[in-house]
Amino acid sequence: MIVMMTGTKTVLLSVAVFLAHNPFVTAIGYGNAGSCPKPFKFGNGPPASCPPPADSNNKPASQLESWFTKEIDDLFPFANLGWGPSSCWPYSYEAFKIASRYPEFGTSINVNNTLRHLTASFAHAIQETGKNNIALYDTLSEEDASNCFYRGGSFNWFEGGPVSRFLDPKTPGYTPADGNSCSSAGQYCTDSPLISYFYPCSKNTTGNPAAPYKRCYFGRGAIQISYNYNYGQFREWLKSVNITVDLLNEPNLLMTKMDPPLAMMASLWFYMTPQPPKPAMHDIVMGNWNSGAENRAAGYTGPIFGPKSLIIHNECGGEDPQNPQKNQGIQMVLWILQRLNWRTTNSFMQNYQISWSSSWKNAPCDCVPANFAGLIYYDDPAYYPASFVAQNEINRQKCIASVYANPSMYVVDKTTACLNYKSPLN
């Protein structure tokens, strides 16, 4: 279950997912990359050959790899500046599968939770570094435009790309190595006594007046990390898993190092890692976060979507479920679910509602799981962790209390027989 919030509005999206054929997806079709307009390709393309992404620690394949295969390439056919997935460049299935072994990405207890990882992180990759060609909707049907728009993830490598204003105009970002130096605008160096003690910015320079600095901590990667303190913290985490890379002195190694593939690893690390007082994006999506008393009182708790904007962009607006133009993150999640032939079904879109089958009886009102959206959720034991299932009875009682307190929410009134009986909670 993923709840998406914005301001005081809340939309519940119960996504119960399992490995099954989906007739609806097959019927409407999700096209393929070949049916999309060809993107403009920047630069000369990847080298004809190269050493493939490698892992010096030789970690074993993750459970994710047993079912999530190279079909990822069809999700990101325009990656790497339009050239497509390439094992010679930062974004490829080969790089992703190695990276996913490290922060234990996609290794949850059931398939449904694993899919939360994939859809949420991939949706951010589309938002952060996607081609995001909104003009597709001017020339194609909405269905065809969406099929192409949502395949545009991981197009860019550098913040402001594909032609980044932070780089030398002669080497504007057409190869991963172009990010080795930058102009003053790309330094992104936060200098304070505390930060500089732990994560000092490099003092190295070049003789190139167009890009004289080596201390370039602007955004890099599919889900971009930026600023010296994030590069420094990622460096420390790498050291904890037996990988030594001096990203403070050579931050562009994040894009060029492929043994292991750091661009993918940095994105998954950022997605999985808390930044106190902010929780990890992963923990928000999975519901494993403590939102605090004030946020809980406002309904911001459990597995929800919107607050991730605060973590990745330091923005609080969230998603607007009523406005498609402001709702791309949610739409991306749904599109990826459907493209992977995973079924989202109302059979598990269950939330507590008044029991219509008994409301007319001479007995107190009750609440039961219902197959449509609501605000008081029911977690099916077959699909959700025990910690969430344990809240079902509390939520049922919450529903009953709300029926008596505000029956109009459920489109009932005093003519409904059960409301003439005292609440069973009293």
Brief sketch in words of this structure:
Keywords: Signal. 31% of the residues lie in helices and 4% in strands. The chain has helices at residues 23-28, 72-75, 93-99, 111-129, 136-139, 142-149, 193-198, 228-240, 253-256, 262-272, 281-286, 292-297, 308-313, 328-339, 386-389, 392-405; strands at 2-6, 9-13, 351-354, 367-370.
Q: Give the count of helical stretches.
A: 16
Gyration radius, rounded: 24 Å
Order of helices and strands: EEHHHHHHHHHHHHHHEEHH
Structural class: mainly alpha
Strand content: under 5%
Low-confidence stretches: 1-29, 314-327, 343-348
Shape: elongated
Mean of residue pLDDT?
79
User: What's the story with the biggest beta sheet?
Assistant: 2 strands, antiparallel
Number of strands: 4
Biggest sheet, strands in spatial order? 1-2
The rounded distance between the terminal residues' Cα atoms is 30 Å
The helicity comes to 25-40%
GO biological process, one term: cell wall macromolecule catabolic process
InterPro entries: Glyco_hydro_19_cat (IPR000726), Lysozyme-like_dom_sf (IPR023346)
Signal peptide: 1-27
Protein name: Glycoside hydrolase family 19 catalytic domain-containing protein
